[in-house]
Amino acid sequence: MPEPITFPSDFLWGAATSAYQIEGAVREDGRTPSIWDTFSHTPGRTAGGDTGDIAVEHYHRYRDDVALMADLGLNAYRFSVSWSRVQPTGRGPAVQRGLDFYRRLVDELLARGIRPALTLYHWDLPQELEDAGGWPVRETALRFAEYASLVGEALGDRVSSWITLNEPWCSAFLGYGSGVHAPGRTDPAAALHAAHHLNLAHGLGAQALRAALPARAQIAVSLNSAVVRAVSDDPRDQDARRRIDNLANGIFHGPMLHGAYPAELFADTARVTDWSCVRDGDLAAAHQPLDALGLNYYTPALVSAAPDGPGSRRADGHGASDHSPWPGSDDVAFHQTPGERTEMGWTIDPTGLHELIMRYTREAPGLPLYVTENGAAYDDKPDPAGRVHDPERIAYLHGHLAAVRRAIADGADVRGYYLWSLLDNFEWSYGYGKRFGAVYVDYETQVRTPKSSAHWYATVAGAGELPGELVAD
Ligand code: GBH
């Protein structure tokens, strides 16, 4: 047997969720619709017309869910706040009942020794703000800063890890570019403007949090942080790689970490927008000191120059849309990375996670890193005895945690790992058909059953080490 792979003793072993994917209770205690309520209720937008109306009823079952986390030995939990639950119109004073829910949740976590990490924005913009223009308009960034300050004031005494935005790439480019996410718009210029205003929102939000929170609080952002590879060394393929990398990574980490967009981005997208939305001082505002960086990783991307010119792109794993989420990149083709895939069709490649962590170790020297999401969807089903065996997920987690440990050995400062996801939940445009949970949810009864991967993860978290080799369950 190879030696077990030991992690630092203060490593955080967590799981992650987001508000719209688990809470349900969408009309309770003053909550108003977000863009995801509107989108999921629009025919044809989600698989089977699924919505988050009920989801996994976490709003009412949060106590049991926290108890479940404690049973699994987790010492960290990343969740998001529903903006329209605490500030229904996206403006003005907070709704106490909304804030009280998160206060109760956090108190429950703290009582069980689980460290909360709070994400302010995981894609659920209050519909009223979308009606006023959404992320493509500047005002939304200012509203986000106000919201950040309300939540910071209310929960700063008990939450010490804060994340401004989750995966702004998805908000901008899936929401306003390909339209497979809410609000479902397909306007490449709007998508780029949304990206800029998300950068601004992050910076203004971080400033607002800094003012509202005690000094010990940690402020971070969770980026998609894609791993983009080219099919060959051919300069045309390398150029395609560089452009997609800038649209996936540099467009956000440039302003947030370095106070500047990648120089070539403006030229690469000149046919789409003149970038007049960028005003003096915006990049300085986006560039706020951070205490940590969150990386979400699922699968690498593989690109080439389109062999037959613009229009010959292939599907890139973001659901069916005739519209590209990559503005100005019609001459880039996306390829399937070879290898085994999960139920999402995403290739399993732990080397991508190692590569990503090492890249951000160079990009942001000295900044502690967290893997704020990583996980896999499989077609899980209970056996006749009611147990759920998911050896594929165990293998996925083992491979990716081993990659994290290799990165630590190579000098990366990774402080924790949040498995996506604690529970099976509403997988956005895929609805309830794709199960990412370590815990199985029966959507008829809402009964939770930890899968074998949950038991495996509990053992790993408890020991602080990975078995040296995978033993089939
Ligand atoms: C995350 O999004 C979300 O934060 C979470 O809410 C969601 O449930 C979870 O993942 C599972 O989907 O274009 O070739 O680079 C992940 C969205 C999926 C976007 C992988 C980038 C890479 C394919 N990401 N995708 S590529």
From TrEMBL:
Any Pfam family: Glyco_hydro_1
Catalyzed chemical reaction(s): Hydrolysis of terminal, non-reducing beta-D-glucosyl residues with release of beta-D-glucose
Molecular-function GO terms, alphabetical: beta-glucosidase activity
Residues covered by region (Disordered): 307-329
EC id: 3.2.1.21
The keyword Chloroplast belongs to this UniProt entry's keyword annotation: no
Catalytic-site annotation from UniProt: E373
Keywords: Carbohydrate metabolism, Cellulose degradation, Glycosidase, Hydrolase, Polysaccharide degradation
Composition bias, Basic and acidic residues: 311-321
First-level EC class: hydrolase
Family of the protein in this entry: Belongs to the glycosyl hydrolase 1 family.
Protein name: Beta-glucosidase
Protein species of origin: Streptomyces atriruber
